[in-house]
Amino acid sequence: MDGRAVFDKKCASCHRYEVKKYDFAKEKHSLKAPPMNEISRRLKKRIKVYDKDIHRFVVVSFIKEYIKHPSFTYYMCDDKAVARFDIMPAITDMREEEYQTVAEWIYDNYSIEEYGKKPK
Ligand code: HEC
Questions:
Q1: Taking the domains of the chain in order of start, what are their residue ranges?
Q2: Cytochrome c domain: from which residue to which, for each copy (predicted)?
């Protein structure tokens, strides 16, 4: 199963695929969790590793670990989001390669730059 398919099956019930920054205020009330484009952007920015390949490895590893063991002690989400949504429930019923592909997809599918841009 590819990353997007895992996302659709296991994550999309809570995480929207994408909410652009300029739509956030409008969409906020309908969210059950932070949208995945925002999570991808935040993790990539907060985890500071200068080598590109190692950066990808560390972010992907964090995501994999987080899905299995979400925690108050090391979330990187916005504090306000955690206060509002609470901590994510652990997802423990996926195959090992599904954790890997969905985490890689979250890293590769979104670009940090796109997030704030308005369509022309
Ligand atoms: C039942 C709802 C729910 C489902 C299903 C769910 N999540 Fe979450 N997720 C949340 C909430 C709420 C948060 C924000 C609070 C937090 O960070 O724990 C979150 C946060 C996250 C974060 C941010 C971690 C951080 O540092 O705070 C990642 C990454 C994530 N989810 C990945 C996934 C992936 C991948 C899936 C599917 C395999 C998934 N989630 C399924 C509710 C959900």
A1: 3-112
A2: 1-110
pTM score > 0.85 for this model? yes
The binding-site residues of ligand 1, defined as CB within 6 angstroms of any ligand atom, are 10-11, 13-15, 33-34, 39, 63, 66-67, 70, 75-77, 81-82, 85, 87-89, 91, 102
More confident residue, 40 or 119: 40
Interior/surface letters 42-68, b for 16+ CB within 10 angstroms, e for the rest: bbbeeeeeeeeeeebeebbebbbebbe
- Fold annotation for 3-112: Cytochrome Bc1 Complex; Chain D, domain 2 (1.10.760)
Hey, whose CA ends up nearest to atom 22 of ligand 1?
39
Q: Which of 6, 10, 13, 15 to mutate to test the pocket of ligand 1 (most atoms within 8 A of CB)?
A: 15
